[in-house]
Amino acid sequence: MRALLPALGLAAVLAISACNGGSKPSSSASSTPFASTACGTFSGRGCAPASERVDLTKPSFSDSTRITNPLFPISDLRSALLLGHVDDKPFRTETTLLPGTRTVTWDGEQIPVLISQYMAYLDGRLDEVALDRYAQADDGSVWYFGEDVFDYRNGAIALTEGTWLAGREGPPAMIMPGEPKVGDVYRTENAPGIVFEEVTVTTVGKTVAGPRGPVEGAIVASELHSDRTSEDKIFAPGYGEFRTAGGGDLEALALAVPTDALSAPVPAELASMSESAEGLLESARLGDWESVASTLARMNSAWKTLRAGNLPPMVAARLDHNLVALTRSVQARKSAQAAQKALDVAQSVLDLELRYRPPAEIDAARFHLWTQQLRIHAAAKDLAGATGDVAVLEWIRDRFVGTLEPAARTEINSRLRQLRSATDARNLPAAADHAARLGARLRALTDG
Question: How far, in Å, CA of 229 to CA of 255, rounded?
Fold first, then answer.
């Protein structure tokens, strides 16, 4: 669905889209084609014939936000983590179902949709955010009603190219048939000149390696892009988009809940690693290497015990990598580098905790980690890094702030605005102070 200014926040973004949205009623009947059959590649060639498409009949939406299609189960998939690499740099995406529903006006109808937030990080920095709109038709197919796209460069929004809304730039696009079959063709984005992708199902009934073991019933689809390049994508039951690979890059499902959730408390070793990572972060800042060394020894011991169990392979591999990098930084006594690597370990530990804790709790904890990331960037006089960190905080805030009491919600929003003002003023010491206070205050509110 996508290739590898300060953040506005969900409410503002969707309000702008609503003002610009809407469409004129058409005379399309439910049994007649409604979507353009023109090929949306730059050359106008390479698309499948219309006779092979399964997305040319207008869908009906009587219960559109109950999205239960097993290959795209958005209404049941609360939080998903994908890991991989792009241009030989570590790549990470977090996909989160946001609270509530919105509506999109299309063909004279108000269609309720769910909003999924997609956040991509490249080499540890915010790279892209998208707000995706989905609805399920009565035949079980899932439809894409548009996205608001924000590409980040140097911590700020650089491009919004790829933004589209059904009824404004084009029709809704089928993202997954109700019962996909080999040879099915459909367009997951169909606004030529803005966005275009055409998918052909090539394999069904595939078994893939998942976070907890084999997953049966996956499909493989070849996705054609505007420039006539293509890449294969895998969709798996209970997960949705499972793996994308093309041009040497990789984005693969590492963990998703509730599919991978466990009904057990957080293991003591995992809780110990989380506490130790943040303690090591502070000790490294102070250059207390004796404390750092003893804390690191405890972390490695706890990880050795955990590693013997059945862990999501991709998350475990990244935690392995981060622990090795942290150990090297500690051995070299590089304070700033050790602090960063401790934070990387803490992030991977939180990823593992997602199996045991509610997603909103994990997002609040991620929010706290990003306040510490901002302090690291501020100490390094990295304004672009700190500015991007504020954007991350603004977006993550939208995932969990609704779980706070009204007074707490108001306070967090106010403190976040103060932090944004400090970075806008290029005052990094003030930004670091605001970040430290914001993180501590959120922890007090959520722990209480």
Answer: 29
Structure-block tokens of residue 256: 């998703």
pTM of this prediction exceeds 0.90: yes
Digit-coded pLDDT (tens) for 354-394: 999 999 999 999 999 999 999 999 999 999 999 999 999 99
The Cα 107–Cα 110 span in angstroms is 9
Distance, in Å, from the CA atom of 147 to the CA atom of 133, rounded to the nearest integer, reads: 6
Distance CA 322, CA 324 (A): 5
For the record, the structure tokens of 77 come out as: 């998939």
pLDDT in tens, 216-234: 999 999 999 999 999 999 9
Distances (CA, A) of 118 to 27, 98, 199, 321, 411: 35, 10, 21, 25, 26
User: Which pair of tokens denotes residue 44?
Assistant: 């106008």
Taking each helix axis from N to C end, the angle separating 335-353 and 313-331, rounded to the nearest 10 degrees, works out to 160
Asked if residues 26 and 36 have their Cβ atoms less than 8 Å apart, the reply is no
Q: Is 268 exposed, middle or buried (0-12, 13-18, 19+ CB in 10 A)?
A: exposed
Percent of the chain exceeding pLDDT 70 equals 92
